[in-house]
Write a structure and sequence with these properties.
Elements (H helix, E strand, L loop, with lengths): L1 H8 L6 H9 L10 H29 L4 H9 L2 H15 L5 H20 L2
């Protein structure tokens, strides 16, 4: 039975999905991993964030193209509401693509992760 268990779970800390799911579950975040696995998990989270940010950036640039339906809806709305809404989205999403901003973004992610791991 021990051999079967060791065979099945020997590489569990190398499985990205399992490590991230365990780390992001507040019940188990501080109780499971060795320091090297925790460092690997932090790197994986940063990589996942970079992928999602890139996809979001691509989606927002594609949405900026002229679309007749969007143009018609925009013409029907008041100009102040549309610009306020666009400004709100711009503040939430923030600009992408600059290396200084990416560094700040990585620092922000690291700080959020540290804060999460310190929280009870």
């Amino acid at each position: 039975m021990l051999q079967s268990w060791e065979k099945r779970f020997a590489k569990i800390e190398e499985t990205k999905c399992l490590v991230l799911a365990t780390l992001l579950d507040p019940r188990y975040k501080n109780h499971v991993f060795a320091m090297d696995t925790l460092a690997k998990a932090k790197q994986w989270i940063k990589e996942e964030h970079a992928i999602v940010s890139e996809q979001l950036n691509i989606a927002t640039t594609e949405d900026q193209g002229p679309d007749p339906k969007q143009r018609r809806v925009g013409e029907e709305e008041s100009p102040g509401a549309s610009s306020a809404l666009e400004q709100m989205y711009a503040n939430i999403l923030g600009p992408h693509g600059s290396t200084a901003e990416e560094t700040d973004d990585e620092h922000h992610i690291s700080e959020q992760l540290k804060q999460y791991l310190r929280a009870p």
